[in-house]
Amino acid sequence: MRKRSWGFVAAGLLVALLLAGVVSNYASSHPDGLDSSLLKGCTVDADGEITGGSCPAQQAKDHELADSPLADYGIRGVNNGFLSTGLSGVLGVLLTFAVGGGVFWLLRRRGPARPDDAGGTPREDRQPAGAAG
Fold first, then answer.
1. Are 53 and 41 in contact (CB under 8 A)?
2. Which of 30, 50, 66, 127 has the most CB atoms within 10 Å of its CB?
3. Closest by CA position to 19, among listed 76, 113, 109, 93
4. pTM of the entire structure?
């Protein structure tokens, strides 16, 4: 990769880390369209708990990984909400970058084919240069 490309990748990674680590803490905590549509027909208190009525959200169950260390946009064990959300975002970006970079590294081109590899003759059938045949 050229030096200029590395700068572009590093700048992109820096922007992603900044967005995940800082800006993500200012995202809206209000339910999005899907969450709010699942709550139609129910009465909800200020904490978002269902207090009455009937709606599809009442059948919701916890995810299998709900008790994992990075569940619910935070890190379990970190009591500061701002820090917990920021660190989980940064870890997510770094993990995604590492997996994506690893995949691209495995699939990268190794360079142009050498001229002696082109042709139709299998390599083991060729005679060394200068050999009589």
1. yes
2. 50
3. 93
4. 0.63
